[in-house]
Amino acid sequence: MAETRSTCPYCGVGCGVIIESAGAQITGVRGDPEHPANYGRLCSKGSTLHLTAAPEVLRTRRLLQPQWRRERAAAPEALGWDEANDRIAARLAAIRAEHGPDAIGFYISGQLLTEDYHAFNKLARAVLGTNNIDSNSRLCMSSAVVGYQQTLGSDAPPACYEDVELADCLLIAGANPAWAHPILFRRIEAARAQRPEMKIVVVDPRRTESAEFADLHLQIQPGSDVALFQGMLHACIWEGWIDQGFIAAHTEGFDALKALVRSMSPAAAARICGIAEADLLRAAEWFARSPASLSLYCMGLNQSSSGSAKNTALINLHLATGQIGRPGAGPFSLTGQPNAMGGREAGGMATLLPGHRDPANAQHRAEIARLWGVDALPETPGKTAVELFEAAARGEIKALWIACTNPAQSLPEQALVRRALQRCEFVILQEAFADTATAAYADVLLPAATWGEKEGTVTNSERRISRVRAAVPPPGQARADWRIASDIAAALERELGLPHRFGRFERPEQLWLEHREATRGRDLDISGLSYALLDRAGPQQWPFPEGALQGRARLYEDGRFATANGRARFTPKPYAPPLAPADANYPLALSTGRLRDQWHGMSRSGVVPRLFGHEGVPGLSLHPQELARRGLAEGDLLQLRSAQGELTLPLRADASVAPAQAWLPMHWGSEFVAGLGVNALTQPGFCPESKQPELKYAAISLQRLELPWRISGAAWCDGGEGAAMRARLRALLAEFAYAHCVPVAGPAQREGWSFEAACAEAPSAALVARLAEALGLRGMGVLRYADTRRGRSRLLRLSGEGAEARLQALLLVGERGSAAWLLPLWREALPVAPHGSRLLAPEQPDAVLATVPRSPQVCNCFDVSEASIRSQLGHCSGTPSERLAGLQAALRCGTQCGSCLPALRRLVAAQTEEVSSS
């Protein structure tokens, strides 16, 4: 067995992994104990990475060869790379000749490597001559970029992970690292255990797992962060908690900010935020008066029409109190994607150029033109993500090249995105996975290499550059993203009759060296780094200029900032509510967020059934009071409406959500639910400075739907048939008012698929027949029950014989709850022999009333359920920490990745409360 050190492709923590492989097959993965981002730890997603490269996934879910559609509705046809490159070049050249270079747009990804980013950037700007290149990092990090630029002078997080252990006060705002950055949260837990006096404040409209761990949870109204930070600053000024010496020596513009926040008293801010004034004052005092205060923040601040204002308001607070530029202190933006930082460094966005340069700056354009050996770069401002698709919907963008991202799931206002893709004359999708929602709109599908198959670099949240290494070759004809871009660039140069603008690259290191040169003398200077040094010494932080012995862990320790005069700039911006706040027509404020075990649109994590064990089906969460007030019950099917679209989902009661608010996981797209997915509801309005859309806020209305007819289908798949079954079931989602289709992990790593649907009238016999065929319930050996008068039917297929017989597949049609007792028999692979003829009985037999749905999974690593944990806790005694330790010793839950620790602590606390009250 071979072992290869590489980096995890999920979040921006940037964990090191060791890939185990045998020949051309990845067989396992574990955390790299030498990588400074994780020291061997991995979360539930990272620890299952090898399952995303399993043979059946490679065979059934990956794009393996270039494909071309003769027309959009036709099935794609395979062709060779040379022909594909020439055809693409000819088509792009023709569009450029007829409509100009700005009729072409690129939409790329924070999951690309820095070398890939460099290739695409150079292709767009130097070869085709357009600034229309943007990244899905626009959806997660662009407000943080603007916040750092406007206040500190450069897009550079000034803190590092070590500061978590050194902070006396930790302010977590608009982030849930317990789920979104779980390995960093392990460090927070360990720091608190070592230093119980550390104060932790969490700012979040929802009582998340991170909020439960905090000393103080500020459960603010969605979108009110600016008012909160200004109210805290007002208190700091009034109480004398600001650092006058630091302000005078190292900043400018404080008087204007002071004048702005004068009217935002703590009382006024508390009213806007919907919190107690005393809590706001307590947070301000802890933050200002602690020896070292660190803030961690993410999408809750960034994905907003006031995203830049939220970022600058928080950084203003750091500057005013001198909480920056020293161990344990500073504003630390958490990166959402594995290489969003690297993309920002490489200038892979419409508003950036390589080396933290500005495309609106003529001198900056000239510097990159000289480096790339071209006469000039384009001057016309490029379109950012939402603008790019809006222009395509208007017919202005004629060609879209999409790489390593799924805009037909992730962008807001999905109805507009689909119109844009349909209207666009030429859509190229460069992707590893074949069945994303965007693939249906592509004229050309280009198979890309992915994790475990690529060479290059990535940069994590703390500015640490890590090597990404290939353990196995790409499957089929898949190629590295940089090579695909390079080959088509060469074909375009031939087609356009251009000199060799792009250059000839044979390996990714050559691209990286050109990128490195773009950073020389800049704030992110990495001229002292090389592949050889990274291979020898391990991951390194920037800046790392030539001649340096190591990178810099913290920035601005000398009090000099990256502005022209070296002073940080206070940036006063008034509070503004969300663009489309809740009103009489749309009375609920909807927020979106992450699930613990899933990633973005689930193109990768969604191929691992195990990762659906913790939360396996979509649903809208409302506070129990909201259910009572509206006369709703858990499980009701609700039609959600916003000004942008609609979606039907089941209802969940969830006390972590505040009244008058709602919460939805961001992951559920049309690949898993009927309709256009969660982003059918979200709005395209964006921050005017960062152009980041307000994905975190939408105003919605609810209507309970009367859909009495329910359909439940499920089947275990053998021999890698899961992808084919999924495709058949997914094609039927649109036939129902509500439907979802999700994978299920079964015994012995078997893959199952579950299909649930609802409709107002009994489904037609033809539709039931299509469902039966999709589930393998046709032909010999199928047990059947039908009540044509009542519209009920039941189809069952068994595997095994006698006492070993189990349900292989089933399809239930009838009223809600009809024969639902069979579903646990299928899911748990329980023997069916004890039930005999009752399997086809018209009514649910009394003997099986005790059969209950599976207890929710808490620990993914060891598949430990909540019921098992509660049972074991009955045998645990001592303090809460002692009971937790006993639980872990008995069941092993929380001992591997640790992602379930917040849930375990909650269950221990609940048991403590039950014992105390009894």
State the end-to-end distance.
55 Å
Shape: globular
What integer is the average pLDDT? 95
Proportion in helices:
25-40%
Helix vs. strand class:
alpha/beta
Beta-strand share of residues: 15-25%
Order of the strands making up the biggest sheet: 5-4-16-15-14-6-7
What are the salient characteristics of this protein?
single chain, 918 residues, alpha/beta, 7-stranded mixed beta sheet, 34 strands
SSE layout:
Blueprint: E1 2-7, E2 16-22, E3 25-31, H1 55-60, E4 67-68, E5 77-78, H2 81-99, E6 104-108, H3 114-128, E7 133-135, H4 142-152, H5 162-166, E8 169-173, H6 177-180, H7 182-194, E9 199-203, H8 209-213, E10 216-218, H9 225-239, H10 244-250, E11 251-252, H11 254-261, H12 266-273, H13 277-289, E12 293-297, H14 299-302, H15 307-321, E13 330-333, H16 340-345, H17 362-372, H18 385-394, E14 399-403, H19 407-410, H20 414-423, E15 426-431, E16 444-447, E17 456-459, E18 464-468, H21 481-496, H22 508-519, H23 531-537, E19 540-541, E20 568-569, E21 588-593, E22 620-622, H24 624-630, E23 637-641, E24 646-653, E25 661-665, E26 698-704, E27 709-717, H25 722-730, E28 738-745, E29 751-759, H26 765-774, E30 782-787, E31 792-799, E32 806-815, H27 822-827, E33 857-859, E34 864-865, H28 866-873, H29 880-891, H30 901-917
Helix pairs in contact: 2-21, 3-21, 3-22, 4-15, 9-12, 9-13, 9-15, 18-20, 28-29, 28-30
